[in-house]
Amino acid sequence: MAKLEKTLTGNIEEIAENIKESILKVSYTATFIDSCSYGNDSCRCTVMVFERYSWMGANRATITITLFSEGDDSVKLTAIASGGAQGTTKLNTYGDEKIIKELDKIL
Fold first, then answer.
1. Where in the chain are the domains?
2. Which residues 6+ apart lie within 8 Å of 58 measured at CB?
3. Are 96 and 82 within 8 A, CB to CB?
4. pLDDT tens, 36-89?
5. Second-level CATH architecture of 2-106
């Protein structure tokens, strides 16, 4: 498992769309799985899930991205990558780490 936490500035919907477009452009094997958004006048939350194939790790890695805003231009991001296991043990974390590094470059 690999994890990234950041505070971004901007509109949560625009940030989410930029992340989605960028991940799909930067990784040939990336697919958008699904998302959900909810909130009210004072806060918003968006969760997005992506999956990609890791050639080096010879497996698939999933990244779940959560964006949270409390009505201002400050957006909290948490991204957690998972997958990449071969067999019953988690020895190969290359795919997890790679997708987190790609997201960090996008931001």
1. 2-106
2. 86, 92
3. yes
4. 999 998 899 999 999 988 666 567 788 999 999 997 889 999 999 887 656 555
5. 2-Layer Sandwich (3.30)
Which of 107 and 80 is assigned the larger pLDDT?
A: 80
CA distance 24 to 103: 11
Other CB atoms within 10 Å distance of the CB of residue 17? 12
Structure tokens at 36: 């959900």
Alpha-carbon torsion, ordered 19, 76, 73, 44, to 10 deg: 90
User: What is the C-alpha separation between 103 and 105, in angstroms, rounded?
Assistant: 5
Q: What is the pLDDT of residue 37?
A: 96
Quote the CA–CA distance of 12 and 45 in Å, as a whole number: 8
96 vs 4: CA distance, rounded Å: 11
How much is the pTM? 0.84
